[in-house]
Fold this sequence. Notes:
The chain contains 27 helices and two strands. The chain is mainly α. The protein folds into four domains: 96 residues; 145 residues, Cytochrome Bc1 Complex, Chain D, domain 2 (Orthogonal Bundle), CATH 1.10.760; 99 residues; 207 residues, no CATH class. Helix 17 crosses helix 24. The chain is elongated and about 110 Å long. The N terminus is likely disordered.
Amino acid sequence: MLVSPASAQTAAPVQAAWRLLDYVAVDYPEAVKGGQIASPTEFAEMTEFSASARERISGLASSSSKADLMRRATALERLIAAKAPADAVGTAARTLAADLIAAYPVPLAPAVAPDFARGQALFNQTCASCHGMTGDGKGPKSVGLDPPPIAFIDKARARERSTFAFYQVLEQGIDGTSMVSFADRPPQDRWDLALYAGTFAFPASKVAEGERIWKSDAALRSRINMEKLVGMTPAALATDIGEARADAVIAYLRRNPSVVVPQVAGTLMLARTRLNEAVTAYAKGDRKGATNFALFAYLDGFEPVEPMLSARDNALMVRIEGAMGALRAAIAKGAPPTTVREQARALDALFGEAETVIAPEQASGASSFFGAFTILLREGLEALLIVVAMLAFLRKAERRDVMPYVHGGWVAALVAGAATWAVATYAVEISGASRELTEGFGSVFAALVLLWVGIWMHGKSNADAWQRYIREKLTTALNARSAWFLFGLSFIVVYREVFETILFYAAIWTQGNGGAVLAGAGSAIAILAVIAWVMMRYSRTLPIGKFFAYSSALMALLAVVLIGKGVSALQEAGYLPVNPLGGFPRIEILGLYPTTEGIAAQAVMIALLALGFGLNRRTANKGAKA
């Protein structure tokens, strides 16, 4: 909300007066034409509405603006009584309504962007019987109604109506008509309905053109926020950009209202809304619904801004992640409703801190550089260690002919990462669940492969065992299928890190400081290149036994790290349960997350590695005795 709301006692009469003035501005042309009364019924209504608006303004609390508002309300009544031109009455009514809201602020915009699809479903359920499925006012129950239901497809009328005007009608109803109040419905339902009702006169065929105009006009985007979108009329927008362009933009924005909401504010507000819904569902005994809402609060509300928050304040990001996991665990265990409510309240406070940290004005060149540098260095190091170890192994085995497959895997991963960036930035928004599942299953797959590779390398750490392997199997072991397997492993481990990195970079890039981001990325790439060169050069001088011993230890460590990260990502996607373990540290670089499932998975991985290494030693000892 962009203005301080009036008190509850003040808000109702202000909203009622605003709605009456809006009706006068829209309907007066039907009452008076050419200085003559065209419709006695409409004229009587205009006289009544203007007087009622003045009465409501007179009852408002005293303010420095009240006297002027009263004077202008009286002047509006006189214009109507004198059968003044429609332009004069419309201008007087609209400016009075706008100044009334400025003097007595009330909520003019929804807390969360309205949902077009939900608005359509609600309209079909509750409104279409009178207004018609196409908004033509000819639904099956419209027969005999006096006055008849409004035809939303009437473009002349629709150009003069804002979404807020529709919302006001839904909230208060219209006396003397079949239009009842929808005040018993949640405010968000009314906003969804109001938005959808305002789309009938602006067909879907104009959406593509409206999207093109919106994305190409930075000045237009800077002028329209959520309050402006729901408060302005298409006619008002037409005075700025022309009628044809305005119709197209309205068609697009009313079907896609979320585009006017900054990502940070929008997603965290969505997280708060879903948390409230989770608490409400849980209090009603709907544990499944509460679980889903809590999961959506993370995937759709918090996860999209997690990369940016991690770059700015990783400790706060960790606290929020842990608190959201704890909330889902409390719901799953059937904790008392008061406990769940307190946890949600604590999360809401953390979201407030996050909003401050990731606000655009907090972005600086230094923070952007440091975020880009640490993210790429951290994510790139894991993939680098695996790929370099594979290349070093192939060189030790004198199988350089297979090395292009490994190089092809990581190059293909970079290309796929670039395509992912394009899709995530320009085509569609990658959902939170998709992100977590990609990271989760990619990590688990890589961990299982590294389990096998680590045990295999450990078995060859004995020089005699390696020589026997060389003589007996290596010439045929790395066949075409094995080579493509190495390609796949190289692709998976690199793409997983690239995928996560581009999500972080996309978040940082939107905050500006592009030069600092590129500098941070370049610095990280330079350090990774040095690490790769040192590893490759040092591996040449290592005796074959030590090379495989060190490599097997590295593969084992990475397997444990990746299985921990994979389980954590699948938990965040809702595919695995979450049972927090108090007292355990969270060490992301080691894949250690304080949950029963994550630590158990790492413990199983360690046990399998220990078993494999133990069997290798037993086999080696038997070979030595023989």
